[in-house]
Write a structure and sequence with these properties.
Rossmann fold, single chain, alpha/beta, about 15% strand, 23 helices
């Protein structure tokens, strides 16, 4: 076999035959991964989207499972489960289960052709959507490979269903970069340590990641207290074709559009002085020019609005909306149609950001700058999701400030300059959750529990006093009377050093576990019959709605028949105009690294003349109209304030608002993550030094301080 034949020599004849008939050669990521995985070492495989990472992780396990003469015959059927795959997304879990069918069928057919016995390998999925009958069957007849999520793994470990996990010898964690920097990731790695405690010997860990930095940080996070994790990160050769497009000459006065709606549509009335009609028309053109397109939006409301508008502009429906509030059944249909090239476009949020295989997608459009460079890189990677394919992406900014950020994000994607990732250190709230869950199923000696906790990287340097304080709190010994109303969840016998559960601890662990915030959502169900789930709505949206109203969800119209304390009952209302739904959520805020890059970009442009600016922006991927708008934006800002805010310069403005109150505006590119604590510090400092009760509002682009009634302007030394 051409390429790197030695990397396949370790596989069985059936697996080699299937791979050779399906692929020209292993990718560098696959060859490197197999070197580490086949030796039994823990491995972290880092490679761009479409490099075959998932198959690299699974193929060695499939080969070993296929080589067993009779899976499960060596012991009880309950001992069958050997491979655990953990996905951060339920949609990705289902996608992986589908994608495993091809190699399983191919290896089986290859084995038959060369006279070998057909392997009997089963695959199961365990998520929050798994039916009750399948959950019950898991105990008596587990699969060889279980695909699950971090939260479902936590629930398995905190119930009788953990018994089949005792046979696991391989753990694959996909898209680890998406959770490593969050408390959700910390929760997961402590669950992995709990799983290891059930096993006769620790399971091999294989982590898969898109481009991430620093790689060593993620390796430490995955390995914890184990021997060093082997990192396979071959040089990336992924090619991106990215551009920033503005469809109007002046984003501040775009002018009317011939196809513009004036009212009576599902998307509502559109103001004539809006960039949206122009953007939507150009977006539809791109969709019709390509086979399958994913349009990414930063909110569910925008996804629904764009989808409705595209379908109104087209002669027939061309798009479906895909986000977390669309029902699982509808999402699966949408994903299948998109993968098969039967659906021209999907307008999605981050629900399609991670590594779901969308081989038919040849274009990604991002409306508004993504939350981070890493997120943008993941999204554009959905196009050309094959080895050696070009990923094409088009960015449409919503306004001129957004245009500036789009330009910086696109340039940094091309450079591979994603944000640094750091895993949380000592998240005590996660630790408390896991301790209650552990004690709910077994009594634990304090020393052994602390030893297990410290094997997980986030708590490797946990101070003994902090660990003891968590146990004190859970056992009812509180630092002050303010916590007296909290119920103890565990018993701590300080004589024997043993922890045991109080009544209700187990139920609390499984109903309140995890780190995904509990949002106020109402399920939307079809009225009558089986009451199939359609999706979910924000509680505030439901509060403002009435029986008889029509709203849009998942690109379809629904008539409200009834509103109960926790459900909205609906019937289809095809063709009827409806109001757009909305959901509330916390925006993550611009990362500091991106803020610094944005400031440096502005500083570089400020030192150039118009011709130099245009040439620089063209190199960054902006089209002519985008260049014109951004140059005009910076010129107007400099004319108004004399200097541009950049990574070395902050600009302060004083002015009176429409009520006559003085305001101070601090222009800063560093993002809301910096500005939020800064705004709090300003409020506290002015209250303590001047007795002023001020109000601060912050965004990614600065802070506005509203001062109480005063005749005189605030002094120039104010901030």
């Amino acid at each position: 076999m051409a390429g790197t034949p030695s990397s396949l020599e370790r596989f069985s004849p059936a697996t080699r035959a299937w791979f050779g008939s399906t692929f020209a050669a292993p990718t560098p990521a696959q060859a490197g991964a197999w070197d580490a995985i086949s030796s039994g070492e823990d491995a972290l495989v880092v490679a761009p989207t479409g490099s075959g990472k998932t198959l690299a992780a699974f193929l060695w396990s499939l080969d070993r499972l296929a080589a067993r003469a009779s899976p499960g015959a060596a012991g009880r059927p309950q001992d069958r489960l050997r491979v655990l795959y953990v996905s951060p997304l339920k949609a990705l879990a289902v996608d992986i289960e589908r994608n495993l069918r091809s190699p399983l069928a191919g290896i089986t057919q290859a084995a038959a052709r060369i006279g070998l016995g057909a392997p009997d390998i089963t695959v199961g999925v365990r998520t929050g959507d798994t039916p009750a009958n399948e959950r019950r069957r898991f105990l008596s007849a587990p699969p060889d490979i279980l695909i699950t999520t971090p939260e479902s793994l936590f629930l398995l470990l905190t119930s009788r269903a953990r018994e089949p996990l005792r046979a696991v010898d391989t753990i694959i964690v996909d898209e680890i970069h998406s959770v490593a920097g969050t408390k959700r990731g910390s929760h997961l790695v402590l669950s992995l340590e709990r799983l290891d405690a059930l096993l006769a010997r620790p399971a091999q860990r294989v982590a898969l990641s898109a481009t991430v930095r620093p790689v060593d940080e993620v390796a430490r996070f995955m390995g914890g207290g184990r021997t060093p994790v082997v990192v396979q990160a071959p040089a990336a050769d992924k090619v991106y074709d990215l551009s920033v497009v503005v469809p109007v000459e002046d984003m501040t006065a775009p002018g009317p559009d011939g196809d513009e709606l004036t009212g009576g549509s599902a998307s509502g009335a559109v103001e004539r002085s809006s960039v949206w009609p122009h953007l939507e028309g150009r977006l539809l053109e791109l969709i019709l020019e390509h086979r399958s397109t994913i349009v990414f939006a930063n909110s569910r409301r925008l996804a629904e609005r764009l989808c409705a508008r595209l379908n109104e502009l087209a002669t027939k429906p061309v798009a479906r909306a895909h986000h977390g509030s669309v029902s699982r059944e509808q999402r699966l249909v949408i994903e299948d149609d998109l993968k098969g090239g039967r659906l021209p476009a999907v307008v999605a949020t981050s629900s399609l950001e991670l590594g779901i295989d969308m081989s038919a997608v040849d274009l990604v459009v991002q409306v508004e700058a993504p939350d981070s460079v890493a997120s943008g890189l993941q999204r554009v990677g959905r196009a050309g999701h094959q080895v050696g394919a070009v990923s094409r992406g088009v960015f449409f900014p919503k306004y001129r400030g957004d245009l500036l950020e789009c330009a910086v994000v696109v340039e940094r994607i091309k450079e591979g300059a994603i944000e640094e990732l750091r895993y949380p250190r000592n998240p005590l709230d996660v630790l408390a959750q896991q301790i209650v869950a552990m004690v709910a199923v077994d009594d634990w000696e304090v020393d052994k529990l602390e030893e297990l906790v410290r094997r997980a990287a986030p708590w490797a340097d946990l101070p003994p006093s902090a660990f003891e304080s968590v146990l004190d709190m859970l056992a009812g010994r509180y630092p002050s009377d303010e916590f007296a109303e909290l119920r103890p969840r565990i018993n701590w016998d300080r004589t024997s050093g043993v922890l045991s559960a109080r009544p209700g601890a187990g139920r609390l662990a499984v109903t309140s576990g995890g780190t995904i915030p509990d949002r106020g959502l109402f399920g939307v169900f079809l009225a009558g019959g089986k009451q199939a789930r359609v999706g979910e709505l924000d509680e505030e949206m439901v509060y403002e709605s009435r029986v008889g109203e029509v709203f849009m969800l998942g690109s379809s119209s629904w008539l409200i028949e009834d509103i109960t304390p926790d459900r909205v009952m609906v019937t289809p209302a095809p063709g009827q105009p409806g109001k757009m739904p909305f959901w509330h959520g916390d925006a993550p805020g611009r990362p500091l690294e991106l803020g610094r890059a944005l400031g440096a970009f502005v500083g570089e442009l400020a030192r150039m003349g118009p011709d130099g600016q245009r040439a620089r922006l063209r190199r960054a991927g902006l089209d002519d109209l985008a260049c014109t708008n951004l140059i005009g934006y910076l010129s107007e800002q400099q004319e108004a304030t004399g200097v541009l805010p950049d990574d070395r310069t902050l600009v302060l403005e004083r002015f009176r608002d429409e009520l006559g109150d003085w305001r101070v505006c601090i222009h800063s590119p560093f993002g809301a993550r910096v500005h939020a604590p800064w705004a709090q510090a300003i409020e506290a400092r002015l209250a303590s030094t001047s007795g002023l009760e001020v109000q601060c509002i912050y965004t990614d682009d600065g802070i506005v301080v509203r001062l109480p009634e005063a005749e005189e302007a605030p002094p120039s030394s104010f901030a």
